[in-house]
Design a protein that fits this description.
Radius of gyration: 15 Å
Number of helices: 8
Strand order of the largest sheet: 3-2-1-4-5-7-6
Largest sheet: 7 strands, mixed
Structural class: alpha/beta
Helix content: 25-40%
């Protein structure tokens, strides 16, 4: 998987992204709860796209929101919609941030990172002590695999079974949430 291919793919999709986004509010609320998204926390949203979860973060009164996406077109839209967020265009595995975070969320994006362990290693290094990293999808692993069958080669990899991802998390974090059911996929852990 080449990151330039991923960037170009999402640049093409950016103009219509918001119109095609499907939200399950109940699942999103559950994911945000698992991710420790609450009043007063500093959040990093990884592969934020056009800012799909930004209104949810603001509704929960987070202290600050930093977001990153590799697609300049996605970032442009997110910045226009949410000037109160700090939205960075860059590679989440290589970017140095000016602060550490209480909560890092990777929502509906994990299969678009070619090195699952590389991403988890990099992101865990941006957590405060007691901070939480969460990888989540608002659909089942099986539905996601079906959805990605229509994606061009080089844009995504298969989503790891939740136990495999939890094993990777366990090298860096204390894992306390591992869920894969008909509606969602969540692996979350805390830096001790």
């Amino acid at each position: 998987m080449e990151k330039t291919v991923i960037k170009e793919f999402f640049n093409r999709l950016a103009p219509g992204w918001d119109e095609t986004t499907v939200r399950n509010e109940k699942v999103i609320e559950f994911i945000l709860d698992c991710g420790g998204i609450k009043s007063g926390v500093n959040v990093l949203d990884v592969a934020c796209g056009t800012g799909v979860l930004f209104p949810d973060y603001f509704a929960r009164k987070v202290a600050s929101l930093t977001a990153i996406d590799i697609s300049p077109e996605m970032v442009k839209i997110a910045r226009e919609k949410f000037p109160e967020a700090e939205v960075i265009c860059g590679d989440a595995e290589k970017t140095t941030f000016s602060r550490d975070f209480d909560s890092i969320m990777v929502y509906n994006a994990f299969p678009h990172f070619p090195s699952p362990e590389g991403l988890i290693s990099a992101l865990s290094g941006h957590l405060k002590r007691g901070g939480r990293l969460t990888v989540a999808h608002g659909m089942s692993r099986e539905l996601l695999e079906e959805h990605h069958k229509g994606v061009p080669a080089g844009v995504s990899i298969s989503l790891l079974p939740e136990r495999e991802l939890a094993d990777i998390f366990g090298k860096y974090l204390e894992v306390d949430t591992v869920i894969s059911d008909d509606e969602k996929y969540i692996v979350s852990g805390v830096l001790r």
